[in-house]
Design a protein that fits this description.
Elements (H helix, E strand, L loop, with lengths): L32 H5 L2 H8 L7 E8 L9 E7 L4 H9 L6 E10 L12 E10 L13 E3 L2 E13 L12 E4 L15 E7 L6 H17 L12 E9 L2 E10 L13 E3 L2 E12 L18
Antiparallel strand pairs: 1-6, 2-4, 3-4, 3-6, 5-6, 7-12, 8-10, 9-10, 9-12, 11-12
Amino acid sequence: MTYLPVASPSDTSLKVRRDNSGCSVQASSSDTPSAFTSNSEFSDAANGASTPAGYQEIFQNQAGSAIGIYGYMGFSVLDSYSTSECSSRCDKITGCQSFNIYYERDPSTDPTDGCTNPPSTTVIKCVYYGGPITPGSQTNTGQWRRDFQVVIAGSNAYVNNSIATPAGYSTPTFLDKAAIQAPNDCNDSPTYMGVKIWTDGPFSVGNCAAACSSQSYYNRAHPAADGSFQTCQFFNTYVLYNGTQAVGQYCSLYNETWPAAFATNVGQWRGPDYFSIAYSYSASNSTGSLDEPSNCVNPSSP
């Protein structure tokens, strides 16, 4: 959902203010943004909502919706505030990994010159994402539409932590907010083979597995002068964030497997910007034990 820039209701330089004489129905004195955000019916529904099976609650009963999340996939309008209905709809969308459900105060009719602040109506939205909604991302608190203020209440968010296992690979290991930081192996050889980056579309462990396999096929077809080549046997994929804004899905490739103990990269500062990691998974292709060094044993922890 894309919101317009917020304009101050007292800003007359952007638009001419009109009265509401043209409204067919006048808004009641109790129909205000503050009354909406303080409505106990909304907060009770949000606080009493159950977390759907297989999902993790990210935030609860907030006055803002998620913004800057990777893989926006649209939204539905619900008849009632139901996390089970919202999760069921998310589950039916290929690639949907998280959802945000909330009450939104919308104008009952489009504001016009003669009716700049019409009566409000309440809309219950279920918004879908192909990547993880993160804590602190609920910063979209609404917008102004002429003199009508759109606001949000009872905002809850949930992430599905179940990931399908790619064919030929181990069950993905959930590394949460950390990425693999692999040292040289026991032969003092580097194992990192590069990174693939996607900046749109839903988050997909399968895409990273396919990239790993594709890199192996390419290397076999293009060996070094001595006939040697490296195969990709392990990957780590995650969403990289700059602050609360998703940068994209990163897919790091390795020729050897590293255990979860090496997931020590939790982000870094680059000048004034902090880059963090979320929704991190790793998986191995252990066919023929090619994911391990041949004449020594790698350490099990840093």
